[in-house]
Amino acid sequence: MVVFFLFMMMPRVMGTDYDLAILWVEYKKWIVSFLTGDLGMSSYYRVPVSMILREKMTNTLVLGIVSLLITYVLSFFMGRYAGRNPNTMGDRLISGLNYTGLSLPLIVVSVYSIYFFSFELNWFPSNGSVDITVPEGTWEYWLDRVHHLILPATVLGIVGTATYTQFLRDDIVENSRKEFVRTAKSIGLSEKRIYNVHILKNSLIPIVTFLGIDLVNIVNGAIIVETIFTYPGIGQLFIKSINMRDHAMVMNLTMMFSTIMIIGNMISDILYGMVDPRIKLE
């Protein structure tokens, strides 16, 4: 519908007599080419779009997977601790960190991380994915890639941690007050078993379903993080393609982002039906 609306409005906006039938035929031709893997030629790089995307997609996938691991590991341990120890000093400290993280935009965290950890402490590189002076394929090459990956992945992962930590903490506290917990205590189950088997298991159900949405968040976050860190992924490629008016690249990346969003929401629905027996997939 959006594409059809744009096609209908294009003659009025641009002030020329476009033949909508020709536009529609060209659009269908482009869709067929996209689905068959023919993504066209990049007007800026002068090579097939698919060749550029394969190279950049690998970097973005590695960045996204590592950042997701950081998000889920930190969220699990901090949310579990805060949920089991509500209203304690540790819980208040974690909540303070969470609210601070929620209030800070990703772009601000990225800029200050580069300034502090790259320029002041000189612990991590401030840009790129690998030093061009390191021979490719060597052990030093892979170590250098990891070294370049740590800071952007940590920034992207920590920013997402605040939401999940607070969500898991509140869910554990809420579940600990429910009837099934009192029943488990009355039949003599240990405190550890009640938390690990009953409360924590039920509290993790909503977190698991966020995995599909995280696929979308990876792309959104990668556009900002990769641009600031000049990390060569599809996020930075998207911004650069817009600036360079590389229409073939922009069109394919936009379609890719839309596809990822649809697949991510579909995965969320499927996971919710799998982890929660009350939900039936039909």
TrEMBL record:
Compartment(s) where it occurs, according to its Swiss-Prot or TrEMBL record: Cell membrane
Residue ranges occupied by any ABC transmembrane type-1 domain in the UniProt entry: 57-272
Sorted UniProt keywords: Cell membrane, Membrane, Transmembrane, Transmembrane helix, Transport
SUPFAM superfamilies reported in the protein's UniProt record: MetI-like
Record InterPro entries: MetI-like, MetI-like_sf
Segments traversing the membrane: 61-81, 93-117, 149-168, 203-229, 249-272
Single Gene Ontology BP annotation: transmembrane transport
UniProt xrefs under Pfam families: BPD_transp_1 (PF00528)
Lipid bilayer topology: Multi-pass membrane protein
Cellular compartments per GO CC: plasma membrane
Top-level lineage group: Bacteria
PROSITE patterns xrefs: ABC_TM1 (PS50928)
Family according to the record: Belongs to the binding-protein-dependent transport system permease family.
Name of the protein in its database record: Oligopeptide transport system permease protein OppB
Higher taxonomy: Bacteria, Bacillati, Bacillota, Bacilli, Bacillales
